[in-house]
Amino acid sequence: KSFLYKLWKGDVSSKMLNPRLQKAMKDYLSTNKHGVRFKGKRNSKLTGDQLFCELKERVNVKTIDGKEAPFSTLGWEKHVPQIPLGKLYTHGFGSCAVVMSAGAILNSSLGDEIDSHDAVLRFNSAPTRGYEKDVGNKTTMRIINSQILTNPNHHFVDSSLYKDVILVAWDPAPYSANLNVWYKKPDYNLFTPYVQHRRKNPTQPFYILHPKFIWQLWDIIQENTKEKIQPNPPSSGFIGILIMMSMCNEVHVYEYIPSVRQTDLCHYHELYYDAACTLGAYHPLLYEKLLVQRMNKGLQDDLYRKGKVILPGFKAVKC
Ligand code: C5P
Fold this sequence. Notes:
The protein is an alpha/beta fold. It is built from 13 helices and seven strands. The chain has a seven-stranded mixed beta sheet. The radius of gyration is 19 Å and the shape is globular. The two termini are 36 Å apart. Cytidine-5'-monophosphate is lined by residues 100-103, 123-124, 235-238, 256, 266-267, 277-278.
């Protein structure tokens, strides 16, 4: 049976990846750049429903609120939005779409279905213009990594991609989530452009994720995986899925678990081929996908044909 078929069934291990990806994963394990010291137990054998409830109980979408050092001392309480992310929409959203940037979404004709959701989440510099038929054109929220804010090629300050949407930025911090250490040495210095953008666009909701939230997700992935996962933050995709599970009644995730259109084309908007984009090298992406597959409430046929997974929102299910 093919790798893709096994992924749809949730029955894959990293041993089935190509040697180059396996080597990359091993190297990340030995480098342990973020100083991960996992104290939990691996391989807890939760069912999909139990895993959902575990996430619901433990996951707390936390953003920098300016109340902790060093941000408190630096006057960040007046830099961050007055209304926290979780309170922006008091009743949350009904149904939400999470649109992954995978090349496999090309020729999907999913655009209308995606736009029919109450809220649409996209990632980094993924465009809609020119790709409407496959990815839709509605964007409610964008999750951006710190490179988007700091790399001039992305034109963060003037690109329309980052206007009129809720922005949520993140940067890999040390596992200890020591904010002082992180502030002094972020992976990419997102703090300066963040404050500048907030000053210029005070009404745009724009948040920075708290490293505690990111590493809490990592712990849960590791606890529910037999193998040792890469000691690096989960991908933006997984982070986004969890943010939407906490804000929506139902979350439809597109081309995270690849459809029959699976391809090594990294992004639908870029001519660059690398299997690592779909299966992970730096991020524990394969393991994230196995957890999401385990919780899928959608039809198998939607998974094959649309690359779609349906997850309930946290408020929609009693645990
Ligand atoms: O590459 P980028 O992080 O901008 O893509 C957004 C998210 O989409 C990734 O974090 C990953 O979760 C998902 N993705 C994927 N397969 C790809 C490309 C992206 O699952 N080929």
